[in-house]
Amino acid sequence: MKVLLVGGSGYVGSHLARFLIAQGHQVTVASRRGEGPVAGVRYVVADAARGEGLDEAAAGQEALIYLVGIIRERGDQTFRQAHVEGVRHSLRAAQRAGLRRFVHMSALGASRGTGIRYFETKAEGEELVQSSGLDWTILRPSLIFGQGDEFFGKILRGLVAAPLPFIPLIGDGSFVFRPIWVGDVAAAFAQALERSSTAYRSYNLVGPKEYTLRELLLLVRDTLGSKKPLLSIPLALMDRLVPLISPLPFSPITLDQYRQLKRGNTADPIHMRQAFSLEERPLEVELPSLLGVRHRVGA
């Protein structure tokens, strides 16, 4: 199948492109840079937020997968541009190209009325997809772990490795998450393309196990070989501090991200398991490699 990945040069897109190539698909990736790391992929320049270059990229394609997403707004990269306007322009390009199959990456927790702009704009993007008249499937992954991820490889690693005698923990760290391996996410997207039974449906993508934020920090700490204790930062203090530091360019967390953390991110995998055949690789298997830890022989 000829597949266009819009926003496919990033973390998830690169993993998905490799998976699709290995499955025998012809892959075109459209991004603002027009380049990427995966051999066998055709890279083209397009700006989904502005609607530029999408018609040319979609010509001759059989399916479009929309992957553009940001977790933090920077400069002219806003949630609305990435999660709403980019979706709108990509749907129009698909319609003009006569392309029927559209698979959309949303996010677990996407919903109106949350007060979290990330989730609000993701929900608005979903509504555009559902009303497009195309043969759509929406996938909503939880936290995604794997080589190159932001949350485990950078944020949690950074908290553990910071030059402090302790590891800061938000509140009691009881917020629950169900992270999923990037390889399982790629497999779900590929299978959605191939299985007509997934059309006009939305699926939550989660891993095999739930963890609290506290448990995730301890996993990262132990994998890195640190002995530092966790220190709970009271929510009352965080609730006052985060809004003050959030606008600063060097802030380690935004108000939107803080609100997401307090909500947790988990779901029942029953519908995912009925629709897709996934490995469901555990976090513990991938954590050493994504953190760059090499186990010595005999250790």
- What does the radius of gyration come to? 19 Å
DSSP helix fraction: 25-40%
Helix/strand-derived class?
Answer: alpha/beta
Please trace the helix and strand order, writing H or E for each element.
EHEEHEHEHEEHEEEHEEHEHHHH
Strand content: 15-25%
Span from first to last CA?
A: 47 Å
Output the strand order for the largest sheet.
Answer: 3-2-1-4-5-6-11
Largest sheet: 7 strands, parallel
Number of helices: 11
Entry keywords:
alpha/beta, 7-stranded parallel sheet, 11 helices
Describe this structure in words.
The protein has 299 residues and is α/β, with parallel strands linked by helices. It contains eleven helices and 13 strands. The radius of gyration is 19 Å and the shape is globular. The termini are far apart. The model has no long low-confidence stretch (mean pLDDT 94).
Quick rundown:
This protein is an alpha/beta fold. It has 11 helices and 13 strands. The protein is 40% helix and 17% strand.
Please specify the SSE layout and strand pairing:
Layout: E1 2-6, H1 11-22, E2 26-31, E3 42-45, H2 54-58, E4 63-66, H3 79-96, E5 101-105, H4 117-130, E6 135-141, E7 144-145, H5 151-161, E8 167-170, E9 176-177, E10 180-181, H6 182-194, E11 201-205, E12 211-212, H7 213-224, E13 230-233, H8 235-245, H9 255-263, H10 270-275, H11 283-290
Helix pairs in contact: 1-6, 3-4, 5-7
